[in-house]
Amino acid sequence: MRALADGDLAGGSAEAGVALDEYFVCDRARWIFGHRADQLAEDRSAAPWITRAAVSEPDGAVVGDAGFHGPPDEAGMVEVGYTVVPGYRRQGYARAMLTALLVRAAAEPRVRTVRATIRSDNNASLATIAGFGFTRVGEQGNERDGLEIVFEVPAEAIQAE
Question: Where in the numbering of this chain does the N-acetyltransferase domain appear (predicted)?
């Protein structure tokens, strides 16, 4: 992650063990990977929860990344995050990533709630979470992403799907 944060695509690919797309060193990705590298340096126990390369089977193409923003918090909440490389968008990969994340979260006894925050103008992501049982619970704003809509789904609702 540190290599990607530093813009070193070859180093990041070598560390990941797969060929990563240029998208993994765009400004937004570099910020995310830098943030996650700092998170790991501070708390190694977060490693199983944070972002990983999403690889298409059987061809092995890296189609994006997916993970959680960290381990479950004291209330049992985890937040999902996923990105599809532009050349692979609108092919079902985001839904597949989200499905895998929800299955992982539901299998963890400590998880009670899964959250997704989506920019209000990100129609593709808003469409992606439809049908997964998420309920809009509020809005939040930040300097980097602007207005985001906050959605949550109880873990027991995921297990029932």
Answer: 1-156
Q: Does residue 115 contact residue 139 with C-beta atoms inside 8 Å?
A: no
pLDDT in tens, 33-84: 999 999 899 999 889 899 888 999 888 899 999 999 999 999 999 999 999 9
Length of the chain equals 161
Model pTM? 0.87
The domains found in the chain, sorted by start residue, are 1-46 (no CATH), 48-160 (3.40.630.30)
Q: How far apart are CA 76 and CA 56, in angstroms?
A: 30
CA–CA separation, 93 and 31 (whole Å): 22
